[in-house]
Amino acid sequence: MANCRACSPAKIGEKLKNKQNLQVLLTLVGVAAGIALGFGLRAANLSQEQLRYVALPGTLFLRALNSMVIPVIVSSIICGFAALKGTSKGKILLKTMVYYIMTTFLAAITGVLLCLALKPGVGINASDVNVTSSEAKAKLISASPNAMDALHDMLMNLVPENVFKATMYKYKTERVSLEDINMQLKGFNTSSNITLLSELKTVAKSQQLEGPNYMGLISLGIIFGCVLGNMGAEGRVIIDFSSEVFKLTTRIILYLMWLAPVGLAFLIAPNIIKVENLEDTIEKLGIYLVTVIMGFSVHLLFSLSLIYFIIVRKNPFIFFAGMSQALLTMLGTASSSVTLPVTMKCVEENNKVDKRITSFLLPIGATINMDGTALYEAVSAIFIAQLNGYPTDFGTLVTISFTATAASIGTAGVPMSSLITILIVLQACGLPTTDWYLLLSVDWILSRGQGLINILGDSVGAAVIEKLSRDDLIPSSAQENEDEEENLYKTNYDKNPV
């Protein structure tokens, strides 16, 4: 009898919550230790070789977490779409797209309004802000796309030619300079070729870039899930297999998060150590930094909080507190894609959002819903315009808002990716593209802010869509069985903690 009372759901839930709180506390300690270690070692002037060994524990943790992303994305999307009724799939997906576009555009508008109020680029000389190394500048400029290239790449990645290749490579258009082409064509000298090349500055060159094609994997997952859901008993085997893969990866992530304090400490420290001219950068780009960070705060505390409160009718700050472990992980990894498994865990377990919503909405959101990125791109475009004395009339501001919203969709959730898409916004608005690389010096700070807002935007969206889709989420026997299995797992985990 005593054993039954000890294993009561209330006792199990309380002990599990205590373990989760301990994980969050240890993760917070790890982040603080990483910041302290980073600033403490800046004076040591470590070499690149020494810095590589300092970063090793963090790199190993990041690789382990990254290895779980693809299994989580594919299995969760297949299970999520297969579990929904035939007509509810389209309804929920439509609501999701409307929410994503609305909040992303709202973030871009917030950035534009703050730029008009604070004028971060007025009174600053571009030559005084050039704190970016020539090597980093050359690397960034070589990756510069244009708007049509970005759209072309997005569509190509959306339809992968090989499902296995999509786990390792993505399609990317690279711009090759005229000088490079002339070197390659040396000896192939005809008048027609000379005439053609003389009219071009760069030529598009298609290539396969190393790294998972998340957009292609998501589109395939949606198709598989929808078809399997309509196959009835014939598709049950694959659905059950996907469900077990998802449970397996979730359990592995639960174990990995006990290593997060050490991993995050040694991810954050090297990033602080290797920043050049930290004091000069903050001094010269201080108003720009304040504008972006204030934009993040306004979008979170007003836009997302109000949307959550009005629709869900709950305290948004309690919801945000439930996301603390995912947010702390984001500070170390600087990647919303890598943090996705932890985000799903927080939304489902801490904030009790239906798994049938989170299993497909969060992976899609991590790929296309970029509130923080849209705000960052809008502020950066106006900052560069003000820096060069370009007028920003109403038409330009509207164009920046729409272009920043569109360019942020599909931006990879990894550091520096938004810097490249800023060029698309500048080109579309006819703004100068000569000084955009200046932002590289503060990207290590702002990329983490973008990621935090992107994660919270996705998570709030999951709660909002769940509330708006109650009629489409009729509990099924399969869902009830899954919940029973989850409760049994929590009981076993409580008895045998890591």
Question: Can you offer a commentary on this structure?
Answer:
The protein contains 24 helices and 2 strands. α2 (9-41) packs parallel to α13 and α17 packs antiparallel against α23 (443-468). The longest helix is centred in the first third of the chain and has 33 residues, at 9-41. It has helices at residues 2-6, 9-41, 48-54, 56-66, 69-83, 86-118, 134-142, 147-158, 178-184, 191-198, 214-230, 236-256, 260-273, 278-284, 286-312, 316-322, 324-333, 340-350, 355-368, 371-387, 394-408, 417-428, 443-468, 477-495, and strands spanning 169-177, 202-210.
Give a brief rundown of this model.
The protein is mainly α and 498 residues long.
Task: Name its key features.
498 residues, mainly alpha, two-stranded antiparallel ribbon, 2 strands, 72% helix
Global morphology: globular
Which whole number gives the mean pLDDT?
Answer: 78
Helix count, DSSP H or I runs of 4 or more residues: 24
Tell me the quaternary state: single chain
Task: Bin the strand percentage.
Answer: under 5%
The strand line-up of the biggest sheet is 1-2
Structural class: mainly alpha
Approximate helicity band: over 70%
Q: How do the SSEs run, as a string of H and E?
A: HHHHHHHHEHHEHHHHHHHHHHHHHH
Radius of gyration: 24 Å
Largest sheet: 2 strands, antiparallel
Give the tally of β-strands: 2
**Are there runs of 5+ residues with pLDDT below 50, and where?**
132-143, 187-200
Head-to-tail CA distance between termini? 27 Å
